[in-house]
Design brief:
The protein has one domain: Glutaredoxin (3-Layer(aba) Sandwich), CATH 3.40.30. Helices cover about 40% and strands about 10% of the residues. The chain contains six helices and four strands. The chain is globular and about 40 Å long. The two termini are about 15 Å apart.
């Protein structure tokens, strides 16, 4: 099974990650995070697989995050509320997201991806 590469094509970090994957000969199934946003069910599966708290799935540099004042609101929200918010708009989710059989990587940190994918 190919890893699922959930990305926003115009995003510079996503393009860098795609180039890195191609350069390492790693084939993925690509999915545009805006036109085919992650569902709440997917997020509920991915979050534990990432080992990260749900708040780390938020695109904190996104306009919507800032406009909604989420930096101050997230601490008072339940996990279910945060997942619902993430599922409401693909641009709310930090990207890229790489979904593998047993692990999910959020954001592109080359060292982390190297360790997870190039064994």
């Amino acid at each position: 099974m190919k890893p699922l590469f959930v990305h926003y094509p115009p995003c510079g970090t996503c393009r860098k990650a795609a180039k890195w994957l191609a350069g390492h000969g790693i084939e993925v199934e690509a999915r545009d995070i805006v036109s085919d946003k992650p569902s709440a069910d997917e997020l509920r599966r991915w979050i534990p697989m990432s080992g990260l708290p749900v708040r780390k799935f938020f695109n904190t540099s996104g306009l919507l995050y800032k406009e909604m004042g989420l930096k101050d609101k997230l601490p008072g929200m339940s996990e279910a509320e945060m997942i619902g918010l993430l599922a409401s708009d693909g641009k709310m989710v930090k990207r890229p997201v790489l979904v593998m059989r047993d692990r999910v990587l959020v954001g592109f940190r080359e060292g982390e991806w190297e360790e997870a994918l190039v064994r």
